[in-house]
Amino acid sequence: MVFLQFFLNLPLFFGLIYLIVMFSARFSPFAKSPRRFFHLMMSFAANMYLYLAEGVVICVTNITLLWCILSDARNRRRREFLLVAAQSLTDIFYGVAFMLIAHLRLGLFYENKLTLTVPTSNCAFIPALWLHNMATPLLGLLPFTTSINFLVCSVAPLWYMRATHLYTFFLLSAPLTIAMLLTSINALLLIENESQIAALCIAANGAAHHIVYHVMLFFRIIANLASAVIYFIIILYLKKSHGGTLKDLSPQQLKMHRNAKITLGLVTTNSMILLLFPDILLFANPWNITKYYSTPLYSMTLSKTMINFMIYMIRYRELRNIIFLKVIACLPKKWAIPLSMKLRSTNEQSNAPKGTFATRSSIQTERIREPSLEQRKSRSGSILTFNKSRVIPQSVTVPAGPQHLPPLPNRR
């Protein structure tokens, strides 16, 4: 739990550093002196170092989450975890994009080239902008896909458990196709654009096509709003129908569904606060706010991905136990063996054989094996088949008594 609390406090820590730097740059006794420009530039450098630090934390946390999902065969078969893995990969793209952007801008800062201008095509085709353009719509579309998936699971749970990998493929391919299409259109529109823009390569200020970039933000805003609406629809449906079709599920499956409902609610709330609010300000740009406060707004979106990691680790025991098992393996054997056995037993109790969010393949692997073809042929002659071991006892031991004759002696 100390490990989880440490990562939970990281966004607050980085936000505090940012506020201290901005306060010192604005209200320093040197702010009105000729060295004011130097203080403003130092605050710019601090912002870029903040991007780098947050990007490193995002990459470490989401790579850890990906490893917890993909390293375990049972987790890989759960459709819910596959959607979480897709979100983690998107968050990694987003974090790496900001790290590359910060590295580019720090180089310009230390070379005194912040006022340099370059052709638009030079900025549009750097890896940082490609990753940023891919991740921008996906940060809203993938949570929306998760909400749709949970809606299907709540309304038709039996069909959901029988759904094949084709359903999972469609869930993941739809948002990826939209993101790739928008990124490709942006590249085609800017491939021969030689108009001069700032070498800082800011997407909102010309590094991305203004129409396509606003469409990306629009998709993200609408998807986040739709995710919240769908979640409230699910809650109202379950409340009015008193569980609805979930009554057909086992108690363990109901427990998993309730856990997923709470997790989705926390993730949706996190997206509304740290993603939707900054997106609306970036999209509408009231009072030209992006000119002075774009860094804290983007920092809020980066903090959202770190808090998502904390939510998943706290809510899913089967994910955090993988980390705990690796940590326990480093301890002496007299402590490691009982602790690992206890963790494995609790993990088995928390995982249902047929989980609410399991795919069809995982359900089939958990079933008792079907009888072979020869056994079925041997039973095909009769209409009703009985279990002979229950009807006819295999060996009957008759107790010796006066009403029975003694056994005959052996003759040689």
Automatic annotation (TrEMBL):
Keyword presence, 4Fe-4S:
no
Its recorded name reads: G-protein coupled receptors family 1 profile domain-containing protein
Instruction: Tell where it localizes.
Output: Membrane
Domain named G-protein coupled receptors family 1 profile: which ranges?
61-312
Transmembrane stretches, by residue range?
7-28, 48-69, 81-102, 138-160, 166-190, 221-238, 259-277, 297-314
PROSITE patterns noted in UniProt: G_PROTEIN_RECEP_F1_2
Q: What are the protein's UniProt keywords?
A: Membrane, Transmembrane, Transmembrane helix
Query: Where does this protein come from, organism-wise?
Result: Caenorhabditis remanei
Carries keyword Transport? no
Primary localization: membrane
Its ancestry begins with: Eukaryota, Metazoa, Ecdysozoa, Nematoda, Chromadorea
Concerning Gene3D superfamilies, the annotation shows: Rhodopsin 7-helix transmembrane proteins
Q: Which Gene Ontology cellular component annotation is one that this UniProt entry carries?
A: membrane
